[in-house]
Amino acid sequence: MENLIALLIAAPLLGAVVLLLGGRRLDAVGHWVGTLLSTASFVVGLVLFAGLLGKDAEHRTWTQHLWSWIPVGDFQADVTLRLDQLSMTFVLLITGVGSLIHLYSIGYMEHDERRRRFFGYLNLFLAAMLLLVLADNYLLLYVGWEGVGLASYLLIGFWQHKPSAATAAKKAFLVNRVGDVGLSIAIMLMFTTFGTFAFGPVLEHAGDASEGRLTAIGLMLLLAACGKSAQVPLQSWLGDAMEGPTPVSALIHAATMVTAGVYLIVRSAAIFNGAPDAQLVVTVVGGVTLLFGAIVGCAKDDIKKALAGSTMSQIGYMVLAAGLGPIGYVFAIMHLVTHGFFKAGLFLGAGSVMHGMNDEVDMRKYGGLRKYMPITFVTFGLGYLAIIGFPGLSGFFSKDKIIEAAFAKGGAEGWILGGVALLGAAITAFYMTRVMLMTFFGEPRWKNQPTKSPEAPSAEPAAEHQGAHGEPHPHESPRTMTIPMIVLAVGSVAGGAFFDVGDRFLHWLEPVTGHSEGHSPLSALTVTGATMVCLVLGVGLAWAQYGRKPVPAHAPRGSVLTRAARRDLYQDDFNHVVLVRGGEHLTRSLVYVDHTLVDGVVNGSAAGFGGLSGRLRRVQNGFARSYAVSMFGGAALLVAATLLMRAV
Amino acid sequence: MNPVNYLYLAALLFTIGATGVLIRRNAIVVFMCVELMLNACNLAFVTFSRMHGNLDGQIIAFFTMVVAAAEVVVGLAIIVSLFRTRHSASVDDASLMKL
C-alpha cells in the first residue's frame, strides 16, 4: 500500500511531461489526458485514504523511501514520501478540487489555441503541490515549494501577450522569492540546530532546542508562509495574480499555492509550540491580513479581485488559527478544506459569469444575472452562504471554531484576536453580499451600455470594437463547467457539518497536530450568537447600500477608506516607495562606492605605476656609454657597501 | 720593491681604462680600454698571488687572458660588421635598441 504514494505525484507529473513535450499532435486529446491523470491521482488518493482508515489512529503514518538524493557525510537528504492524516487531507483536497478545476477548464479554455499547454501547466502545478505536502523532509518540501512557484508563474502569465499578465506573473514570482529566502534560511537553521531536516527527528527533538533558535526558525518559516499564502507584508502579488485565467485563480486560491503556507506552519507545529513569540507574530500577521484582505475586498469592482481579497482574508483566519497553537491547528486545516470547496466554487462561478459576459469583470456592468444563469446563480449563492458562515453550511462550522479558539487564547490577546476575527466575519458578510447583489440581483446594467464610450464618443475603431462584441448575451455555461460547480457547491453545503458531527475532523487530525481545548471566557453559544449578529449586520449594511437602491454603473468617488481600499490600501505604493526606491538608492550608492573607492584603488595604482615607469623609461636612452656609467656606478656602490660593512 | 706599488699601478690602469670606456666614442678605442681594464685586473691578481705566496691568482690571470682573447675575436668581428653596415665605428650611433 505504501508503494502507491509515489503514484500520487507520478500521475500528474507524467501528464505535465507528456503534454508539454508531446507537441501539437496531442492538441485534440491533451485536455482529456490532463484531466484523466489528475483524476487518476485522486483515485489513488481515495484508495490510500481507505487504507489509512482501516488502521489504528496511531499507525496512520506511511513512508515510502524512493532513493538517496544527496548522501554526503552527515548531510543526508533522501527522497522519501510521508503520508499521514495531515498530508492525506491535503492530497484529497488538492487532487479532488484540482480534478474538478481540470474538468471545468475543458469548457472554459475551449477557444484557447494553447489549451494543451495550459493543461500541462495545471498538471505540473498539482504535481509540485503534491510533492510539497508529501515530502518527508524540509529540503524535499522546498523542491515542491519552488515547483509551485514556477507553475504559478507559468499559469498567472499564461496569457503572456498581455503585458499586465506578464508583469503580474513576474511580480508573483519575485514576491514569492522573498518568502523562499525565509524557507531556505529556516532549513539551514534546522540543519545547524538538529543536524537533519527530516520531519521525524526535527519535530521530535524540537523541544530540546533553545527557545531563541526555535523563534528564529519559526519566524523564518512564517516569512516563507507569508510569501506563498499572500499574508501581510508579502500579500501584494495575490490581487495581480487575477490576470491568469479564472481556473488558475480557483486552483491557486482553493487547492494549491496559498494553502502551502498554512500547511508549513501546521506541519512545523512542534517548532512553533516551543516558540511563543513566533506564535504571537503568526497570530498578528493572520489578524492583520484578515482585516486587510476583507477591507480590500469591500472596495473592488472587479469580481475576481473582490474574491482575491476574500481569499487573503480567509487565509488570514487560517494563519491566525495556526498561530494559536494546539487549540487552533485542527481548525486552521478544517477551515482550509471547507474554504477550498467554497472558494473554488465561487471562483468557478465568477469564471462562468465572465464566460457568459464576454469576459467582463466589472461588477458594475453585471446585475440581474440570476435569470440568465440559474445554475451559476445557485452554486455561487451556496458558496456565498458558506463563506459568510450561514448556519448549517460549511463556513459556519469552521469559522466559528476559529473565532472560539481565538477567544480561548486567553487574556488581552484573546479578546483582541477574537474581536478582530468577529469584525472580519462582519466585513466578510458585507463584501460577499455586495458581490452577490451586484452580480445577480438588481437591474441589468449591461444592456445598452456598449454604445456610449466616454473616452471616444465618435471614434471609428471604438464603434467597430463594440460591434464585434456587441451587447453581451448572458447564457449558462456548458456542462463541463457546471458539473464541477455543482459538486463544489454540494461540498460547500455539506462539508462543514460532515466534519463537525462527532468531531470527526478533530479525531482524524489530532494524532498529527495535537489538540487541546482552550478555556474560553465566553461560552460557545455566546460566540456563535455574536458571529450571527455580525453576519446580520454585514449583510444588512450591504443590502442597504447595494440592494435597496440601484448600483451606479460608474464607481462613485467614495470615502477616503474606499479609495485606499481600491488601491489595495496603497500596498504597491508602499512597496514602490520603500522597497523599489530604497533599493534604487542602495544600488546607486553601491555603484558610487564601486566607482570611487574600488575603481579608485585599482585605477589609481595602475596610473601610479604607469607614471613611474614613464619616468623610469627615460633612463633607457640607447647610448651604450650611459649604460656603462650605470654599471660602473652600481659596481662602485657595491664595492663601497662591501667596504663599509667590513669597516663596521 | 714593495708589491703594494703594483696594486697602485693596477688601480691606475683600471681607472684609465674605465674612464676611456666611458668617455671615448670610437668602438676600437673603447675596446682597447676594456683590454686595459682586464690587464689591470690581471696585474692585481698576480700581485696578490705574490703577496699571499700561492698560485691561485696566477691561474685566474691565465683564465682572464683566455676569456679576453675570445672576447677580442667576437668583439672585433662585431665592430667590423657594424662599421661595414653603418660606415661609422662610433658607439653612440649604435642606438637602435632605444625605445
DSSP strand tally of chain A? 2
Helix share bin of chain A: over 70%
The gross shape of chain A turns out to be globular
Number of helices, where a helix is a run of at least 4 consecutive DSSP H or I residues of chain B: 3
Radius of gyration of chain B: 16 Å
Quaternary state reads heterodimer
Mean pLDDT of chain A: 88
- Structural class of chain B, by secondary structure, is mainly alpha
Question: Any idea of the CATH topology of chain B?
Answer: Helix Hairpins
The share of residues in helices of chain B is over 70%
Structure description:
The complex is a heterodimer of chains A (648) and B (99). Helix content of chain A is 72%, strand content 3%. By secondary structure, chain A is mainly α. A two-stranded antiparallel sheet of chain A has the order 1-2. In chain A, α14 (303-323) runs antiparallel to α18 (411-440) and α15 (329-356) packs antiparallel against α16 (374-388). Chain B is elongated and about 50 Å long. In chain B, α1 runs antiparallel to α2 (27-52). Chain B has helices at residues 4-23, 27-52, 56-86. Chain B has a single domain (1-86), classed as Orthogonal Bundle (Helix Hairpins), CATH 1.10.287.3510. Chain B: Its main location: membrane. Chain B: This is NADH-quinone oxidoreductase subunit K. Chain B: Pfam families: Oxidored_q2.
